[in-house]
């Protein structure tokens, strides 16, 4: 029986490249001279921490992160920006979580959407992915199109198409 998996995976190496590009840009930009703006990426915890001297520089770093994500073909929906918090010496910090995988709630929304479409397919939640099976590949392609048309708050990839 044909099937495919719906996943939401981020390439952490590309995110690391994005952070390194932003670091280089911060080092070379004139408006960041003399400011102690720092970026660090924790691959294990999949989070980016930003430390800037004021809110304006924090917003500029955020815009640079988003622009570099687009440039490196990393979907900006993977980044979950936390609140700006005060740090020592008048600095501000922000934590950015890198979302990886489909949450249980999102997976349930995906399954509900597929079942509401009345297509002859079955959807099952498996850890951080959704497996869709059906008798016809055309039905599976219709499901892919249906899911692409809707926004679930996370970027979706469709892998392991088997017939």
Distance between the termini: 6 Å
CATH architecture of the largest domain: 2-Layer Sandwich
N-to-C SSE series? Answer: EHEEHEEEHEEHE
Secondary structure: helix percent: 25-40%
Structural class: alpha+beta
The chain-level mean pLDDT equals 90
Give the overall shape.
elongated
The CATH class of the largest domain is Alpha Beta
The tally of strands reads 9
> Per CATH, what is the topology of the largest domain?
Alpha-Beta Plaits
Rg on CA atoms, Å: 20 Å
Number of structurally distinct domains: 2
pLDDT < 50 stretches? none
In terms of DSSP E residues, the strand content is 25-35%
CATH homologous superfamily descriptor of the largest domain: YajQ-like, domain 2
Secondary structure: elements and pairs:
Blueprint: E1 3-7, H1 12-28, E2 38-42, E3 47-52, H2 55-71, E4 79-81, E5 85-86, E6 92-98, H3 104-116, E7 121-126, E8 129-134, H4 137-149, E9 157-162
Antiparallel strand pairs: 1-8, 1-9, 2-3, 3-6, 4-6, 5-6, 7-8
Describe the model.
This protein is α+β, with helices and mostly antiparallel strands. It has two domains: 3-8 and 102-162, Alpha-Beta Plaits (2-Layer Sandwich), CATH 3.30.70.860; 12-98, YajQ-like, domain 2 (Alpha-Beta Plaits, 2-Layer Sandwich), CATH 3.30.70. It contains four helices and nine strands; from the N terminus they run βαββαβββαββαβ. It has helices at 12-28, 55-71, 104-116, 137-149; strands at 3-7, 38-42, 47-52, 79-81, 85-86, 92-98, 121-126, 129-134, 157-162. Strands 2, 3, 4, 5 and 6 form a five-stranded antiparallel sheet that branches. It has a four-stranded antiparallel sheet with strand order 7-8-1-9, with helices on one face. The radius of gyration is 20 Å and the shape is elongated. The termini are close together. The model has no long low-confidence stretch (mean pLDDT 90).
